[in-house]
TrEMBL record:
InterPro entries: CaBP1/2/4/5, EF-hand-dom_pair, EF_Hand_1_Ca_BS, EF_hand_dom. CDD domains: EFh. Residues 3-38, 80-115, 117-149 form the EF-hand domain. It comes from Pangasianodon hypophthalmus (Striped catfish). Keywords: Calcium, Metal-binding, Repeat. It comes from the Eukaryota. This is EF-hand domain-containing protein. One of its GO terms (cellular component) is cytoplasm. One of its GO terms (molecular function) is calcium ion binding. Pfam families: EF-hand_7. Gene3D superfamilies: EF-hand. The keyword Protease does not apply.
Length: 149
């Protein structure tokens, strides 16, 4: 995680306006946003309360890392999850055009299940997943289908 540590340090220094080694609680939200984190209002309230109660309204770099560490791990887990979803999608998208056609679904299901599904079953599966009705399944529809399960 050296890159993440460098990113934290750069962001910290940018918002440590008086270079005293501390961030004021009011600057933490902007600092997080420059790193690509978009905390909700509830998260910000929670973070600000923690900074005020635990550290007297200011955080040093170590405390900032303690605050940001779990958030960075969650983001990394999310990125890994998306990578796995893309790999799964590619298993179905045989021609790599970014869409799963009826034929690709038929072949993939045969490979995965080891048996052919009836045309009606495949059409039903496709119509359930194909949210925009274009006759194919794109990555977003694929993710929506998996999220709904």
């Amino acid at each position: 995680m050296p890159e993440e540590l460098d990113e934290l340090q750069l962001a910290f220094k940018e918002f440590d306006y008086d270079q005293d080694g501390y961030l004021h609680y009011k600057d933490v939200a902007d600092c997080m946003r420059t790193m690509g984190y978009m905390p909700t209002e509830m998260e910000l309230i929670e973070i600000i309360q923690q900074i005020k109660m635990k550290w007297g309204g200011h955080v040093d770099f170590d405390d900032f890392c303690e605050l940001m560490g779990p958030r960075m791990l969650m983001e990394t887990a999310h990125m890994v999850g998306m990578r796995e979803l893309h790999c799964a999608f590619k298993q179905f998208d045989c021609n790599g055009d970014g869409r799963i056609s009826f034929e690709e679904l038929k072949e993939s299901m045969k490979t995965l299940l080891g048996e052919k599904l009836k045309k009606g079953e495949l059409e039903e599966i496709l119509s359930d997943i194909d949210l925009n009705g274009d006759g194919t399944v794109d990555f977003d529809e694929f993710v929506m289908m998996l999220s709904a399960r």
